Structures are given as C-alpha cells and as structure tokens.
Amino acid sequence: xxxxxxxxxxxxxxxxxxxxxxxxxxxxxxxxxxxxxxxxxxxxxxxxxxxxxxxxxxxxxxxxxxxxxxxxxxxxxxxxxxxxxxxxxxxxxxxxxxxxxxxxxxxxxxxxxxxxxxxxxxxxxxxxxxxxxxxxxxxxxxxxxxxxxxxxxxxxxxxxxxxxxxxxxxxxxxxxxxxxxxxxxxxxxxxxxxxxxxxxxxxxxxxxxxxxxxxxxxxxxxxxxxxxxxxxxxxxxxxxxxxxxxxxxxxxxxxxxxxxxxxxxxxxxxxxxxxxxxxxxxxxxxxxxxxxxxxxxxxxxxxxxxxxxxxxxxxxxxxxxxxxxxxxxxxxxxx
Length: 335
Prior knowledge:
This protein is of the alpha+beta class. It has 5 helices and 19 strands.
C-alpha cells in the first residue's frame, strides 16, 4: 500500500447510545441518489483532529470491552408483499417501520422514484419498474412519515401513483443501521458476510472486530480512479458490497457500502454518510459506527459513547490526492 499524501482522519465510533442527526438523499459524485437536505459541519457539528496516516493495515494496538458474540441469525430486512399497500401497480410495505425500514416495489414502464418524507425533509430513491423491491431506511427519527411512489411524466416532473403513511416509533434509534438497505444490500449467504465472519473469528471484543474489518478493507480494496472518473457526473449509482469484494477495488461509495455490510452483519450499527470533504468540498462517502469498547493504536482511537468517523477510502491504495484532505467533513445524507 502506498503512503497517503494527505492528512487523514481515521477515527471510529463507540457504544449503542445517542441520537442520530439525519438529513436527506443526495446524488454522490462517488455514487448515490437525489434529494434535498440541510447540512452540518461534521457528525455532531464538529470535525475531529487528524493524523498523518499510511496505507495498509494498522499496527495492532490495544482493545478492551465486553466479550463479543456475533448475532445469530444475521439481522435482515425484507419486503412483505402480503402486507403492502398497493395502488396503480405500486406497493409500499410499512409493516417493519418500527424496525427502521420501509419497502417498495412497482411495475411501470416510466421512470420511478420512491420518496420517504418526514416534515420538510425527504429522501428520494430510484425505484426499478420491473417489480424488484427496494428497502430504504427510516432514518429521520420517530414521527409521522409519508411514503410515495412517484412516476415521471416529463423532464423533472413526477406524479404520485401510490402512497402510505405511518406514525413511526423505532424499536431502537440504531435500528435503521443494523440491516441491509438499497445502498448496503446483502444476505446471510453474501460473500461480504462470509468474509466478515471469517475475519472476526475469535475476536474477544468489538474493538477487535473493528480492527479486523478495518485492516482487511484497507489492505485488500484498492481505489478505482478510472471508475471515479467515469461516474463523476453520473446519477443513480448503487454500490454492491459483493461486487466490490470480488473486484477488490472501488470508489468511496463502494468502500462505505462494503464496510456497512460487514459491520451490520456482525451486529455493529454502521451508517453510510455522504457529504463534502475539505479543502475543495469534494463530494464523498464514509461511515459512522458504534461499538461498546475501545481500540487505541498509533493511528486509530476508538472511544466509547461517541459517534466518530471511519473513512476507509483515504487509506486505499491509489486514493491519495483524489478526495481531499479529510480535515473537515460536512454531512449531507445518512443511509
């Protein structure tokens, strides 16, 4: 792995307690969807100190915390067609809203969007017209939500073809970040899940789990500059964790999606966050996680009870000089 030429913030997150600040869906230059949102400077409104990092695995360090037991079975999400509200070829399943997600499917020849709305905030997801369901996070906290399937009529104009409402009370504020969704899609038999389980076999605590996943992704997945250039002006890119695992390379959204699949399948809440990174406000994707222990090494510090950030792309071979300096982040969308 090559030495990064830019300052890198490489800190992770801690224990399963605290509120999430979420906004709306965006189209990332590294991949994503479209929507509207308000922005804040860094998770929790702050930017963490950075240190000079190098590519490749970490030097080990010390971990602590309660004994780690992987979840069995792997937490999953699903679309229940029998419970869905259906209209004009579109179906919306809100039966798992308390678990942090909603499902939608449609059969339609026109371009479709699935919209998740709470108050003045909304997320808009591309919805396939072939009947394939998608799972989207309910990521704006408790409250009254409206869900809409929108059909394109011309240009940027859409008309509603199906809708549903739900007064959501989440089982846990972390529930949306423990299961697969459209930007982090996997099953118990996925290669990413199998690899994650293999990597943490024998892990004594969650600090060791995070260290194992972090080191493996950094050492194994290379930054794909050609793909980044190809998708720079594209819309609607959806990452696939197993594809990234197979190709051993990807862009920032691929790194964030693969990491989320691995961490979530291991029972560790993990957000996919997209937004801007200094110094040139480059659009980027990274992760936020919580663990119940601690990991301290020469380059990584994981402390309990705080959301902090892991940006695996910065440590990737070939990523240096392409995605900013990592000293200041502006969150825009959380999945």
